[in-house]
Design brief:
single chain; alpha+beta; Heat Shock Protein 90; Ribosomal Protein S5, domain 2; nine-stranded mixed β-sheet; five-stranded mixed β-sheet; 11 helices; 18 strands; about 35% helix
Amino acid sequence: MSAQKETLGFQTEVKQLLKLMIHSLYSNKEIFLRELVSNASDAADKLRFEGLNNAALFESDPELKIRISVDSDAKTITIADNGIGMSRDEVIANIGTIAKSGTKAFFEQLSGDAKKDANLIGQFGVGFYSAFIVADKVTLTTRRAGAAASEGVRWESAGEGDFTLEQVEKAGRGTEIVLHLKEGNEEFLNDWSLKRIVRTYSDHISIPIEMKKGNSYGENGEIIVSDDFETVNEASALWARSKNDITEEQYKEFYKHVAHDFTDPLAWSHARVEGRQEYTELLYIPSRAPFDMWDRDRKQGVKLYVRRVFIMEDSNKLMPQYLRFVRGVIDSNDLPLNVSREILQESKDIDAIRAGCVKKVLGLLDDLAANQPEKYADFGKEFGQVLKEGVGEDFGNKDRIAKLLRFVSTASEGEVPDVSVAD
């Protein structure tokens, strides 16, 4: 069954972003795969969370995975997941518009210089739209978990002014994205090249990323083509591994995944806490402020997991407002899997976890201020004004926060805040 196609126009900001991105990010085309795999991983996390209270959402396919396949003849790459999927309204909301309060500021800062604009675009986050760096047409087919097979949705666009939508049959839940590659991008039709990109940027993804096994040779030298799939990533939660088993590059790539940021983090803290509460924290200080930093109601921050199961990422109980720039993961062994926002508001365990993580972040900033003053100057330029809110908001830590604050004075060089009240 296929309903009539409907053509809809992109939001104006999407049109601008697509045009800028396609022309500014050409030097780092590989990021398209990282972004699409990251989105697929998020969809799996959401299904696991919703499935806690509704096991029927898993249908007859409980093993979550991401599959990447190539069709060299058609010049297409397909990224498919069996995560939560999307309804028609969700497709329009998630792909046809950019729901970010910093959108206007973002476009005001673009200069027309491709190199500088690429960094700004990376700060803003491009997600799904990165597909158009390598593709001249993208076809997305999705069905939300729990919906009937007849309620599948197909979205298609050439990344210009509009996109089409139609209702289609889709047997399995989740999302399949087909990239029709532009001329000159044939390098991505090579399985080995894609596996290398996955292992470089997405090895930390905690569900299997599968690709076809490579061809082998028989006893008589004949080529044996395999239709079997193999897992090409580590497929274990990075924060649950020993610090000795994680490279600096892996820490940086995980930050880019969890924060949807293109730039490297300024610093991070990774620790396992044992005692009355047992939890693991992996917390990052970004190197650049997001465009909606001054929106105190923004819905993004530290992600809460319970025994590797994603629960939520927008609770202000996990991190105070004056540390709203912090990104990362907190994974608790003690909280109930069906923890709700209401339980979070009343949980002494969460209060203790939050207090411990605040101390970790302030300790990280203490260390930067004492031992890496140049990095700390960068932090002050980006987040110093936000940190100042903590003196009035966090009575227990106000003296410690005050020592971290820097101000511009007549003795300052330029406009960089470098005078401490503790001096």
